[in-house]
Model the fold of this input.
Amino acid sequence: MAATDRLRDAFDRLEPPPRAVDWSLFAFVAAETVTGLVSFTVGVPEGWPLFWLHRALGVGIVALLAWKLARVRRRLTDPSLWRRSTALSVLTLVAAVGALATGVAWVFGLDVRLSYWTLLSVHVGFGLALVPLVAAHASTRFRLPRRVDFERRRTAVRYFALLAAGGATYRLQQGINDALDTTGADRRFTGSQPREGAGNAAFPITSWVADDPDPIDRDDYRLVVNGLVSDPAEPTAVDLAAGHETEALLDCTSGWYTVQEWSGVRVGDLLGAAGKVGKEAAYVRFVSVTGYRWSLPLDEAEDALLATRVGGEPLSHGHGAPARLVAPGRRGFQWVKWVTRVEVRAEYDLGQWVVTLVSGFD
Done:
């Protein structure tokens, strides 16, 4: 028996029951979406298992999709078998292939832009579209899972093998990148690719969703520091240029990272100038001129920086002038730009998750 035949035979023997394949595809896609979205908030190396799980699930989807297509290929290729739901099936397949193809291309270092979007952003878009499409597709042939489809020990072994193969495949990809010295070899564990240089021109200008305010006049600028402080303050842009420096890595969820020297005022010093912080204080909220906002726990916020300069240059408008938050260990969308208010609060701000989706829309 040829090696390809043996491989095909092993692949067929691993195939779960048809109903298990269908429900597993939905579960894997849902898990991919959850791990992908949660990964947006992870910026420290200790979070690497989440990214490995995301990639292993992706390889699992490839296998599940192959089993699914082998079973339904006649319904897709024979026009006499087409139904009203066939168009939905094809659209779901396109989204799945798009998500998988852009993900694979990205890990090998392909870095192209489609208008304002990086390839990683396109991958995220395909992934988000896939969840409702898979759900709608499943509803056209809805069949509840049966215990017999999942209870066998062999089934558990199959799924363990899928995830193990996913992890091994990703590790193999890393080895290929290193051996061939591709542009994918120098990605962070988050998947982000480096942007070299110093200052405003060294890294792209990006905004979360639709934030695009007019430039802020530095002479008229006042930062409002209030909330649970005894003496609310309104420092000027000159006051914020205190010269405190820190080297920090900015990792943007659109797929790039940069290490820069940031200069400005330490948030702990800023709060100290606003008097005594209340005993019940637990969070510091940073609010943009656009309404966008993010909160940090008080201890973390005190060590953060409100930067007015990057790489020895005054921040450009696109990078958040007159002042932006620099929060080491956080992802780029949490580094609030164009900060106009710093508020000390007792409670976590759940509304910030909603604002990240609507802040730039009128």
Q: What stands out?
A: The chain has a mean pLDDT of 87. The CA atoms of residues 17 and 171 lie 29 Å apart. The chain is about 45% helix and 15% strand. The first strand starts at residue 113 and ends at 114.
